[in-house]
Amino acid sequence: MRRTMVAGNWKMHGTRASVAELIDGLRELALPGGVDVAVFPPLLHVSQVVDGLKGTSIQVGAQNAAVQSGQGALTGEVAPSQLIDAGCAYVLVGHSERRQLMGESDQMLNRKFAAAQASGLIPVFCVGETLEQRELGKTIEVVSRQLDSIIGELGVDAFASAVIAYEPVWAIGTGLTATPQQAQDVHAAIRAQLAEKNSEVAQGVRLLYGGSVKAANAVELFGMPDIDGGLIGGASLNADEFGAICRAAGN
Ligand code: PEP
Fold this sequence. Notes:
alpha/beta
């Protein structure tokens, strides 16, 4: 039985003061049992959030980590082992903003995924198609290629201790959301692709949907059989809205 998960990606938002307010709001939430909740603040605020959420069930993740697990001469980067030391449990790998805007290649993402796992972080591996790719009917092909890149390099078992987030690029931060059926179709295809190699891994891996999820559309999305929760961007910056999404995942 897969536990549902709701993850909040704060992206490059926040100051120490606004983060403190958000922490206060999160601490007041009545969160449902049976749902793993995690937030992904900017690296700068990870320690503040880890300290601020002590005593709650909310876990903390990072939005990025280096391609090597241990410390070293890599100016400007943060090692997965340092994130573990700081109290992180998860790290995002392959978010479309990093693929597109920071030029992160499949090869680099393979290294980041492996380095994260080597340190004990759980990668949340993001996949998804652009609007153009969807309109050309290439959604499954694109997502499948992104997954294959990890499977080819690290083996399907890499997904035994990872989370996958399907995030159509056209739905991120745009207010457009995939319909529950559109999202379900891709999630089912992801699970089927993994099942071809290892059915146990396919059945166990959590598949989150991301792309303009709000409290208003969360129940329907999370009600689909292969959607195990959500990766939430904008709506995770509001504690009440985020709490409502977490409760939707608990239904
Ligand atoms: C995201 O950035 O992962 C995301 C899903 O953003 P939003 O919810 O704002 O579309």
